[in-house]
Amino acid sequence: MKPHALLLFLLALGAYIFTGNPSALSSEIDVLIEGVENDIKTWQISRASDSIDQALEIAGTDEEKYRTYYLKSLVDFYRGDYSGAREYGQKALADKDLKDETTFLNYLVRASEEGPAFNEIKSEHFVIRYAHPKDIILAEYARDVLEKSHFEIGLDLETYPDDPIIVEIYPDMKSFTLASTLPPKNVEKTGVVGICKFNRIMILSPRLLPKGYSWADTLAHEYVHYLVFLKSENTVPVWLHEGIAKYEEKRWREKGSSVISPFYETILTRALKDNKLVPIEEMHPSLAMLESAREAQLAFAQSGTMVSHLVDYWGQDALVNLINSIKETNDYEAAIEEVTELEFPLFYDSWEKELRSRNLEEKIPDIKIKGVRIKNTDGKSQDGSEDLIDIDNNKARDYTRLGDLLKLRGRLSPATHEYEKALEHDPYSPIISSRLASTLNIIGETKRAREVLSPVLDFYPNHIDIHMILGRIYLDEGNFSKAEEEYLTAIFLNPFDPEIHASLIALYEKQERPELLEREEKFLRILLNEEPENAK
Amino acid sequence: MESADSPSRLDALVESLKHKKRKYLLLKGLSIIFMSIFVSLALASILSLVYLNPIYYTFLKIITVLSLVLVAIRTLIIPVLRETGTRGMLGELDKMAPGLGEDTLNALELKDNNINNSSILGTSKILALAHIDNTTNKLGALDHTALFPIRNLKRYLVPLIGGAIFALTALIFIPGNFTSYLLSLNVTPPNTGPHLELGDIEITLKYPEYTKLSTQRIKGTGGEVKAVKGTEVIFEAKPLNYFEKGSLILENGVSVPATISGGKIKAGFTVLGSGSFIIKETSKTLISETFEIKTEEDTEPGLSISSPLGETIELGSEEKVDIFFEAEDDYGISKLMLTWENERGQSKTPISKKDKETSAIKDNVSWSPSGMNTGDGETIKLRVLAYDNDTVSGPKVGVSNAITIILKDARSKHKETLIYAKQLMEELIDILGDEINISNDSASARSTESAGNSKAGPKVIDIGEVLKTQKNLTQKIEHAIGTLDITIEGMKEDEYSDFTYFVGLSNMELRTKALLDERKYLIESFAKLDIGRLGRLMKREINEFEDDILFLDSMLKGDKLVDSLRSSKDLLKEYGELSELLKQLNKGSNEQLEARIQEKLDQIKDLMSQLAKKMSGLNGDIKEGFLNKDAFETESLQAQLDQISKLAQEGNIDQTLEMLSGLTQSLQNMMASLENGMQSFGSSMMAKEISKLNKLISRIESIEREETSLKEKTGELKKDLLENPDSPGDNLRNFIKNEKKKVQELINNLMQARTKISNNSPGEIAPEGAYLVEKMIEKTEQLNNWLQAMDFEEATENARSIEESTKGLSEMSSLNIGNLGKASQEIGNAKRLAREIRKDLERFDIEEDSGKQFGEMAGRQDEIQGQTGDLSSEVGELGEGSFVSPGIGDKLGHAEDFMGNASQDLRGQQVSKAISNQDEALKALEEAKQQAQDMLQQMQLSARGNGSPVPMMLGQQRGQGMQGEDNRYVEIPAADESQIGKEFKQRILEAMKGGSPEGYIELNKKYYDRIIK
């Protein structure tokens, strides 16, 4: 029995002795239940788990039993113990009086029953679960990303959770939307592929997106949410939550990186120009619920730059103080005023003014912001045409297709001719540029390949193909460190492309780094289905 | 003297005696027998009247027959047997001449022994011969007539004749039923009573309705009935006996009362089968003879298929066969059916009849396996059935000869076509690669040359090398065209090939051949190789091949969708069959059924696996947005199938069926998604065009609305000016009224003048000045119209002209030219009136407000004209890169012109003219809109993926060459059901090969582009 539980029990016993009233004993369970409920709200799940176990032991009446079953199911669900959640959920559902909780209980039972069968690997502070055999690769890389995040972001936010944090990698859209409770349309529309909810971090495997996504940053982003949730005891509003997460998401790999990427700069500039910033109020209850991917991205850019503004002008402590203050006051406007000595509207104005003073530019012409497109099958299509639909310009798409057809048949020089024509119609398309650069690189025109990639890399730093081509170029040139950098960047976007691992194997062989070599070889075998399922 | 031939003479004599005796006895016996028959018949007939009883009749018959038999034995058989032997005759001889019999006997014995052997004879030969001779002589000398007294037979003649008369009388006057019984072979008499004689028998036959035969009345008949079943028979006859009451009794015992009226009995019945009937008089139990009923058969219809000839026909699943047949029936055919039969069972469909009532039909019916549950290579038997209209026995069915249809293996054919299409694409990609390389090499050489290698002097082009490369390229292009030809030919036969793509490929062929011709001309002519022109040609070729490759790529992608849909349909069919098998299993299990279920499950798994493969091939190729990806969870479908298999093995059939139903639903969802994908895929090709057309139509409608509104306002203004007494137009109305009076007066004067001029010169056909007056009258009438139309500008102009003319006339009149002087007064009046009218009109100014209104409306008209002009220009621009009928731009241009005219009219306050121009503008707008709407409809049909062609430009070849430009906008007709197939494709191909007139090649190209996009 844990000390606080013992304390509660002694208190209840004292009350019984003092009052001589047996009902005083039943108040003990009420105290326990109330404690559990509060702990669940603030994700103090270990404590909640201890308390509910005690409550289960002393629950006497049917009402008490069902109540504790319900909470036990909830606690187990939050702990990631799905069998327990299912068992107690079903028991609780037998009680007709739990009307208010029935819907949620049904969800708990269904999510526990229909969720994927996870395997897991553990790091010092994280339990990483995956269901698809190939997702072990992601889990392995995620371990490093998460531990770095634990250290760096923990340092920034001055928070280190006591319990291991559960991270789940979902193998398909169906299981992800069930677990996250996000409607599939919202996921596709706004591109939300990760979420921190129910005391855990959940992401959709980048395997399901044709070009992957920046899953490492996403994991870090969700981890920030986790910390902010814990630290603020769930008092920080969504927009600020997202702002802090956006501000801190790259912290695991670099310090002091700017929130404003060419992409964010472009959409912010347009929004400032058109006075179409997303109002703070519309960012509730979730950015995933906004009307479009553009709005969602703009909201991220706004809140991220707002937090950046706070840290830039009032220091990193201001961010920690802000969270602490919100926890105390549950009023973000008052907290900002307390930290910045500016009323919120003034703070907002100062942010906007500062943003406008930066003379931002619409760097990426004709930018299109789309949601995510989920694949249903692994791998690329035979002719590599799966991303052609992302080229909006018809002529550009046609010429690219022609280039692809020629390239597939080994007609590389004519293929570059077609890609060049395509690029004339869509000059900053990362899809066309990467195809052209790749082909140019094969025929030895490396210089031209770099020229083609250079502008689009700035605009689309998360386009995996660009990093893959650059990796190839650097590898061919013998610039191993740069090549490794590019390939690792590619891995943090989509670790399921065998070429990356094959290239890294070649690289590590040359660098004589056996441990890394062994790991890459293992991953390659998994991707080529040569490794037994669930091999760890 | 003894004679050596005495023995033989004796033999002959004895035999002669015996013969004559036998003859005599026969005649005698027969006379007695016949006499007995006559008497017996007569007696029996008389005796039959004593008692009407079958037993009595039988008794009578037996007695009669026995009596006759006895008489025959006694008078004929016994005497003949007894008295015609040798001994009998010898006895007779002894009676006639005592001892002669014995002598004759001895002589016969001596003769029979060996006459030369004395020991045997017991006497000498001479003596023996002498005795024989003697006896022979005695016999010969004897009068033999006593032995057979033929003359004595005469005594039987009278009784015989008497008996015959007696018998005949009895037979005639005694009821015939006993006589007939007596003479019949029946042992017992039929249950009949005394005979009922009937005369004047008349039968009326009322045939069944379906035979369409009119009622037949047969007189003088014996009473037998011959008719088809269901015929109503009315039997009428005059009873020759007493008839008080009675009935008609059918063979089966059914009795129908007979009425008697006018001395005739009448009874009716319906023929239901062959048999007989009688009429019975019930009070005296008189019975008529039996009348036979014979049914005529209603034969089944005769039917034959005359075309197609031959027993087996190969047919594509989308093709149809026309079946010509002939059917005939005696009483008419009620319906016709076409049946087809395959291994799964038989189906039939009615054939519509042109004429409702006919007994001979020559017609044809079309049949196609399209939409039926058939499989490639399947054998189907087709037959025509004809049902007659027999409503009594039920329709009889005639069945034609069968035609055996073997369904073509259309999918194999389609796959074959696709292989050629893919090969063509490969060849074109190869050519494109070569062309780009050659072009780039040339460009690179040029740039190197211009980049500073001038010191080395201009680069020498190796013409031989160029020609070699180009000839190689030419060969490749020729080969590709060959493959294209094969592909097109294949598509003609290929039922699964899309019509739109067929047109596209045909178009491709035309253009590619044109380029090839140019290429050959360039590199094979004797003139110096024109490098510049060759470069330009290659540029065009590159563009062409790029388009061609994209076109083929699009075609092959679209086919993947269609192929997946087909496989889904196959799978759905298998589900249905599995479901049926499971239902059977639910009723009772057996090993065979279980094995079939397992086999079916394996087939489904196999199909599912194939489908999954096809579906995965769609990823990336087809825009995923077109497809509902949730419907593609084939892995889930496979898992469900495994579960179904498990449940079926466990015998949990209900749950198995439930799961199968769910699986079917999933598959149907998937198919719906595919169909949606196909539609969207098709739509996407033309989505932009459709969108543009929609916008165009919307804008035309907007202009139409504005122009209509303006026209209405113009009309209101006109009405207001003319009719509203409170309006500023009051003066106008009065003005017009007054002026019209003056005009009428002017006309009257001129007409009087004309009369005077003509009357006074009767000999002249066209007197001097008459023509002028005539023309002036015309002009003045026109002036009247202008005034009416409130076109004051024209009216003023007209008035001036009339005034000038009247001046001229007046001068001529004063000079007394011709007969004009005689009408000087009228001409003077006309001159005055013309001047007045001119002055009035010049003075007249419409109220300021009205003028302002006209100005405003003209301004509005200018705005609308501007909008129309803009739209017309845009359509012109669209036409260059898009797919819009050239006529739309023209119509908009016309509308713009009419609006310009209307604007001018409004400014000139020519309100009626303005309205007229506005009307014309609206008509032109309506026509433009209609054209756009027609195109939109065509595109929407095409986008639905039903293979309906989009409109396109087609050239028309006339004679040996192009004669001028055909500016008609030609649309490929929609492939209606009757034309789908090879013939229609061939027709289009021929039309395409007819060539395109100048300018239309480019339009064809644009159509082609649109298919690609």
Shape verdict of chain A:
globular
The overall pLDDT average of chain B reads: 76
**Structural class estimated from helices and strands of chain A:** mainly alpha
Number of strands of chain B: 20
| Straight-line distance between termini of chain B | 148 Å
User: Roughly what percent helix of chain B?
Assistant: 55-70%
Weakly predicted, low-confidence segments of chain B: 623-631, 761-765, 943-980, 994-1001
pLDDT averaged over residues of chain A: 87
Strand order of the largest sheet of chain A: 1-2-3-5-4
The rounded distance between the terminal residues' Cα atoms of chain A is 36 Å
Shape label of chain B = elongated
Radius of gyration of chain A: 26 Å
Q: Nearest-angstrom radius of gyration of chain B?
A: 59 Å
Helix content of chain A: 55-70%
Q: Structural class of the secondary elements of chain B?
A: alpha+beta
Count of DSSP H/I helices of chain B? 24
How many distinct helices of chain A?
A: 24
Number of strands of chain A: 5
Strand content of chain B: 5-15%
What is the assembly state of the chains in this entry?
heterodimer
Low-confidence stretches of chain A: 15-25
Any descriptors?
heterodimer; A: 536 residues; mainly alpha; 5 strands; B: 1013 residues; alpha+beta; 6-stranded mixed sheet
Architecture overview:
By secondary structure, chain A is mainly alpha-helical. Chain A is built from 24 helices and 5 strands. Chain A has helices at residues 3-19, 23-41, 45-58, 62-79, 82-93, 99-114, 135-157, 173-180, 184-190, 215-232, 238-248, 262-274, 293-314, 316-329, 332-340, 344-357, 394-408, 412-425, 430-442, 446-459, 464-477, 480-491, 498-511, 514-527; strands at residues 119-122, 126-130, 165-170, 194-197, 200-204. Chain A has a 5-stranded mixed sheet with strand order 1-2-3-5-4. In chain B, strand 18 and strand 19 form a beta hairpin. Chain B starts with 5 loop residues before the first helix and ends with a helix. The chains are: A mainly alpha (536), B alpha+beta (1013). Chains A and B meet through helix 17 and helix 18 of A and helix 9 and helix 12 of B.
